[in-house]
Amino acid sequence: MWIVAPLICGLIFGTGLLVSGMVQPAKVLGFLDIFGAWDPSLAVVMAAALAVATPGFMLARQRAGPVLAGRYFWPGKSDIDMPLLLGAGLFGVGWGLVGLCPGPALESVATLSPGVIVFVATMAGGMILHDRWQSSRPAVRHDEPARVADG
Amino acid sequence: MANFTPVSAAIGGALIGLSAVLLMLLTGRIAGISGIFAGLLDVRSDDKGWRIAFIAGLMLVPVVAGWIGFGMAAPKLPANWIVIAMAGLLVGFGTRLGGGCTSGHGICGIGRLSARSIAATVVFMATAIVTVAITRHVLGG
């Protein structure tokens, strides 16, 4: 049952977010608040994640393909373009406003907090809005569905 | 730095990195949460199975943690619903336009040494820091 693999990966990812405290917006905002009582924890989370992911991805690249699927779906783009910078900029503003990014937001749905449900619903709305807008623009990035995005 | 929790941050971070590596090694997919979630919303997408499984795993964690005595507190969010909705829209639209979020660019992308993801991470960190500086220190929220 190959479907067990992504389920276990989701469990490990969620455990990492929970253990590190990154599911709590207060912790994330404490990192972003460099002019206040700064909390560097998020930087340690990223450093530790990269310490595992960077050699792990190098190892993956040395294999012909993944264990349970036909091929690797490595992101294809390498150019730094305007949509990338503008999109990242808008994402950062939303992230800074409440301290939630997509992973912790989806994990927090389990708490049934009304605020989280509003956040996830409007986040889904923003994604759908973007994808509709892109597919309504002829010939511009029209053939790029979600699965070839960076992450 | 009274709130600094380096040990739990390092353990949690290592688990996040491990999840990203396992997902790639086993299924060939990038553990970018915004991309995984957006693929569920895309009616044309025909690879929803692994996406549902990954997000189900993510959402099950607080439930299982509650069973074994580590219940997760509901996140503290701003009282203003308009701010929450605005933030949700910006995060949704921005992560699609920019092709990723904290996990896809910040961990998987930088982990692949992608200049594109490093640029995205610098930009979203910068605008998030400026946003917090304005809301906490200029507007005094």
Describe this protein's structure:
The complex is a heterodimer of chains A (151) and B (141). Helix content of chain A is 62%, strand content 0%. Chain A is built from six helices and no strands. The longest helix of chain A has 23 residues, at 114-136. The radius of gyration of chain A is 18 Å and the shape is globular. Chain B has 141 residues and is an all-alpha fold. Chain B has a domain at 77-141. Chain B has six helices and no strands. Classes of the chains: A mainly alpha (151), B mainly alpha (141). Chains A and B meet through helix 1, helix 2, helix 3, helix 4 and helix 5 of A and helix 1, helix 2, helix 3, helix 4 and helix 5 of B.
Short description:
Chain A is an all-alpha fold.
Mind sketching the topology for me?
The complex is a heterodimer of chains A (151) and B (141).
Chain A: H1 4-20, H2 25-32, H3 41-62, H4 82-98, H5 102-108, H6 114-136
Helix pairs in contact in A: 5-6
Chain B: H1 6-27, H2 33-41, H3 48-67, H4 81-98, H5 102-111, H6 115-138
Helix pairs in contact in B: 2-3, 5-6
The low-confidence runs of chain B, each spanning 5 or more residues with pLDDT under 50, are none
Q: SSE order of chain A in H/E notation?
A: HHHHHH
Distance between the termini of chain A: 24 Å
Number of strands of chain A: 0
Q: Please give the radius of gyration of chain A in angstroms.
A: 18 Å
Could you tell me the number of beta strands of chain B? Answer: 0
